[in-house]
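REQUEST FORM: STRUCTURE PREDICTION
Request ID: SP-0412
Submitted by: Lab K.M.
Chain count: 1
Length (residues): 364
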Amino acid sequence: MVSNSGSSAARSIEEPITAKGSDPQDQVPPIIVLPPAEKQSDSTRIKSLCGSSVSIRFKIVSAIALLWYFSGFFLPIHVSWNGHDILLNAFSGAYLIPLFGIYRYRQEVDLYQKKRILWIVVLYELFWVLLPALFMFRDVIPQLDGRGRIFPAVHYVESISFFLFFIPVLLLGRRADCGWCCPCVASRETFAGAFRDRTLKGDRWYWLRYLKWINVALVFAYLVTVIRMPETAHQLYGRHLYAYLLGSYFLSFIIIPWTGSRNFCRWGCPWGGIWGLAGYFGRNRLRVNLETCTSCGMCDKVCDMGIPVQRLIRKNAMLRSIECMGCGRCVGVCPNRALTMHSPIISKLCSRKHKQPPLRKVHN
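STATUS: Completed
RESULT:
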């Protein structure tokens, strides 16, 4: 994705960087650079990107929102109104996400992340609230078992949308869902974003990423069951599987203040594993200029997924990880612009519309 960074360098596109020892044939066309924002205090930007500038008051309000969101699934509150039974705390993301999104947008200092938060909220309200309402919440998405699902249904392995969504994932990487458009990222970047600084990091916690492949295996086992027994698969297996996944998803919000906002994305989400694996074979990745990298460790500090970014890029001169969801924080926080985000599809579109401005000199 492309970031604005002041009036003089709205979009910067640079020629590929080749690290020492890397294969020239492995280069990709234009790379997207997220330059440091102008007229901003470096310390303020770093605190914002690390999530350490959040006030105690906002964390308390966010914790209440987490409990409210959690209760909508496990402890639904029924209210009678004019003879109608209303679930008071159901679908709370429809209003929590835009409300907290506005606050997060106003508090965010990094210009690229401001725009990202704005787009996350807009895409969530469009794809997960407005369009389903436009279809009257009817089952309009066809499935392999002959049933239907409410739009967009990309997280149901038997739906047609699931298979079609591989196209944007291959083109844009895992961020097509996990970084920009999923209800999960919308909630975790808004009312759960206050606890980004609580992200558990280190080899032990990074190893736990393998746990989500158990859920990936369960999901594909269900897909095979749907193909073999389309009439009975959902009743025998599917409804229990999705109840388990949804329960795990909502349960993860309770422990966010102790584990960081991306706990389920890291350790439990089967879709993150599937999209990450598909995106791994695409051409979207992060590269590093080893000559300008000083191993300061800031890329590790801002990563909500707990990826040992510095270790991986020093080893491979790039970050090509199933876990990366393309938020761009590591690129934005790098004091020497050693990291660059490669996205050939987007950069080609940008290069057609914008001339390449000269890159600004960056001072440490």
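NOTES: The beta strands are 12-14, 31-33, 78-81, 84-87, 139-142, 148-150, 285-288, 318-319, 339-342.
Reviewed by: T.R.
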